[in-house]
């Protein structure tokens, strides 16, 4: 099991604002830009499983579900390392790691579970060429925005978000890492008609985890006993994961993630986001949302 460092509260100093460089019209973290040539040439394998999400849309949660499925419910195997070390991001790099994530991926045995926050049009071409299976998880915009805001507050990996009002404006205009939430969810929604993509909704998984996990199992062509299915659902529940140091990011020092400011896993309950908005902010956001999602067949639930 991964070593867990005691998390004592020493307020972390925020770094200078993250440099944003665009790739394909999408703002990405400077670390991704620096190695973009290698990322774009990343070689996928036919049996790779890709977990794709916009930031703060249930990435860690779905990773735990998929890890439990791949390890046939072996809890100890799923505690072999912290979340960031078990399944690398295709495009991300972290200053506290000795290797780039894509280098970690190259050394992993098959079958690999890889993560990405990239929009569909920036995915390495080899993923499409190899016809990899992809699971995409989408979360409703307001909850995603508020969760992203609190994540900015507690991690030194991202710049200070200032006020929620300022962050809301940047989110609506796509001036955050990984760009427009609207383009991201719509891009992957369109891609599912051409590729092996299971498109899931955060709110559906929260409302009926058994039904959604069964969808995943069918997509992965796996058949497991009812007892194991129930075990997976229990182990990957919010309350259990919140206490799991290899999944809740408390194993990282406060110089990277300062949980007393805001825990990485806060509430996870659909509908929480709108409570942070004023009446005026809600009206402005809803008007902008209707404009940007006009013509899309995507429908999100804000409550369960």
Automatic annotation (TrEMBL):
<dbReference type="GO" id="GO:0050427">
    <property type="term" value="P:3'-phosphoadenosine 5'-phosphosulfate metabolic process"/>
</dbReference>
<dbReference type="GO" id="GO:0004062">
    <property type="term" value="F:aryl sulfotransferase activity"/>
</dbReference>
<comment type="similarity">
    <text>Belongs to the sulfotransferase 1 family.</text>
</comment>
<feature type="domain" description="Sulfotransferase">
    <location>
        <begin position="46"/>
        <end position="296"/>
    </location>
</feature>
<dbReference type="InterPro" id="IPR027417">
    <property type="entry name" value="P-loop_NTPase"/>
</dbReference>
<protein>
    <recommendedName>
        <fullName>Sulfotransferase</fullName>
        <ecNumber>2.8.2.-</ecNumber>
    </recommendedName>
</protein>
<dbReference type="Pfam" id="PF00685">
    <property type="entry name" value="Sulfotransfer_1"/>
</dbReference>
<keyword id="KW-0963">Cytoplasm</keyword>
<dbReference type="GO" id="GO:0004027">
    <property type="term" value="F:alcohol sulfotransferase activity"/>
</dbReference>
<dbReference type="GO" id="GO:0005737">
    <property type="term" value="C:cytoplasm"/>
</dbReference>
<dbReference type="InterPro" id="IPR000863">
    <property type="entry name" value="Sulfotransferase_dom"/>
</dbReference>
<dbReference type="GO" id="GO:0050656">
    <property type="term" value="F:3'-phosphoadenosine 5'-phosphosulfate binding"/>
</dbReference>
<keyword id="KW-0808">Transferase</keyword>
<dbReference type="GO" id="GO:0006805">
    <property type="term" value="P:xenobiotic metabolic process"/>
</dbReference>
